[in-house]
Amino acid sequence: MLKSLSINGFTLIAQAEVPFRKGFTAITGETGAGKSVLLKSLRVVCGDKAQGTFVRSGAEKAVVEATFDIANEPEVKKVLKELELDDDSDELVIRREVQENGKGRARVNGAIVNLADLQKLGEELIQMHGQSEQLLLRDTRTHAKMLDDFAGNQELLTEYGNHWSAWNEIRAKIVETEERAKNLAAQKDFLKFQFEELTKATLKEGEEEALEEKVNSASKAEAERRYLDEVQGLLGGENGLLDQVQLLQAKMRTLAAKVSDYDEDLQALVEVADPFESICKDLMRLSPSAAVSEADIDRANARIAQIQKLKRKYRTDVNGLIELTEQRQKELDCLENLDADLEELNRQAAKEQMELNRIAGLLTVARKEAATRYDRAVSDILHTLGMPKAEFRTSIEEQPLTPIGADRIEFLLAPNPGEGYKSLQKAVSGGELSRVLLAIKSVMADLDHVPLLIFDEVDSGISGEVGNSIGDALRKLGKHHQILTITHLHQVASRAENQLAVSKREIEGRTFTSIVDLDREGRITEISRMLGGDSETVRGHAKQLLEENL
User: Fold this and answer.
1) Interacting residues of 193 by C-beta distance below 8 A, sequence separation 6+
2) Which of 14, 19, 271, 497 is 20 to 30 Å apart from 234, CA to CA?
């Protein structure tokens, strides 16, 4: 529950420290005094969008700080834990600062949070029910949630939701598989052609390098054979180098024998000729490497050309070509298996749909049974709120499966006999809608976990005995929630357990709004004002009203 609200520099409120207590609190004051400003500050601190116009003229910034007691609020603590803001404390402090340019910051227990997280937390702390919040009832999407909360359908909805998710996942896979099959079918001939071409090539890793090595080796062997033949031709044969060297040595021996001056030359020639002859004899004994046939070389070159052509065509290397072959094989296999996959997916989808239909049927039965009790309870409360002939009805019509079942649920209202039921979306007036909202909140009091409910002028446009009924309804609702409401009716204010008086005054040309937590005498004075006077008779009436509602 809300314990206190500190406001500084927020439009008409220069400074205010406002305490709050359990139960039903009425907020009263003259029109234009600033009652809506008080509620607006509370909305801002709980995540409403801020504007620079909220900053009071002359102030640097507007600051609103709210303190909540969350000892018995597990949903609030759950959100704090999700946001990693849980400090195991039973007190929650939210501070919101707004600059003149509209920017600002928010802190939760001292930690800075973004607006989205603040809004998520605020939704668990307060519910505002004013003219704008009545749009909630005009949205039929909320009607099903309200009825399901009343019926206690959470377990069924959880089970249904699990099957709904599974069903939609399978359906998404079916669409994906069908699209894939369509695309693959359109490419089947192309895929088959590539696969057959690549398969026929029987590519092997490292084959290209081996072929190139084979061709290079054949080229070397040919060069070796040619040059070795030429060398051996020079060395051997008639008048070859070996014969010429031997003839040279014989001539030199003859010359040296006759002319001793050539002995040294002969000796030098012998020293050179012996190793030369040895080398020549070795060269003469050599045989060329085994020759590769021209046919083998042609085949190797043709294979290399084929591989290079495929590489150019598919713009990848041999390993890439091998991987592409495997990929095309998988795609063709997949195309063959897609029909079987689709058949299995459709079987699974049908099974999930059967479960959805079964649970949706259980939900329909539970909703119709709960709607009978719900409609009677809401109608009974409306009868006490100035609508004695009004009838509330929940329309439940069959529709295709949705995330919450197979029911289209809409709340209808017959405000007066003979006029028929009207949709809350358009046909019902704001005053009627506010009373319907109060009646629904009263019926749901035990189930609604939000601790603070705020009703902004829920009694607008009514008076007399109806005001008493609305006051009684708010007081009863205050047994389950902390209730704040702006009211101009003394019948409503006198039934509140607590009362805040909002007033404004002008000081040196500036307007100041003040908020006072009224004691008993203060309440008598304020209710007297609401009754239209301050005479002893009026004060006596105000006192009597308070005593009657203690």
Assistant:
1) none
2) 271
The number of beta carbons lying within 10 Å of the beta carbon of residue 209 is 10
Tokens of 468: 């008493």
Alpha helix (H) residue ranges in 238-317: 241-258, 263-285, 294-314
- Radius of gyration for the chain, computed over Cα atoms and rounded to the nearest angstrom: 49
DSSP state of 54: G
Q: Are 546 and 494 in contact (CB under 8 A)?
A: yes
- Residue with structure tokens 């998404």? 172
Residues 6+ apart with CB under 8 A from 542: 490, 494, 523, 524, 525, 527, 528, 531
Report residue 483's pLDDT band, with 50, 70 and 90 as the boundaries: very high
Q: Are 157 and 406 in contact (CB under 8 A)?
A: no
What token pair was written down for 128?
């505002």
pLDDT digits (tens, 9 = 90+) for 172-193: 999 998 888 777 776 767 777 7
Long-range CB contacts for residues 256-260, cutoff 8 Å, separation at least 24: none
Tokens of 321: 């070509």
Distance of CA 263 to the CA centre of its chain: 108
Integer Cα distance of 343 and 355 in angstroms: 19
Q: Using the predicted structure, report yes or no on whether residue 450 has a pLDDT greater than 70.
A: yes
Task: Give, in order, the Cα–Cα distances in Å from 396 to each of 7, 129, 275, 329, 448.
Answer: 46, 26, 118, 55, 23
Per residue in 407-416, pLDDT (tens digit) is 999 999 998 8
* 8 A C-beta contact, residue 18 and residue 7: yes
Instruction: Assess contact for 94 and 118: CB atoms under 8 A.
Output: yes
Rounded Cα distance, 294 and 292, in Å: 6
Higher pLDDT among residues 22 and 303, named by residue: 22
Q: What is the DSSP letter of 261?
A: G
**Start-to-end C-alpha separation, the chain:** 22
Task: Please give the pLDDT value at position 548.
Answer: 85
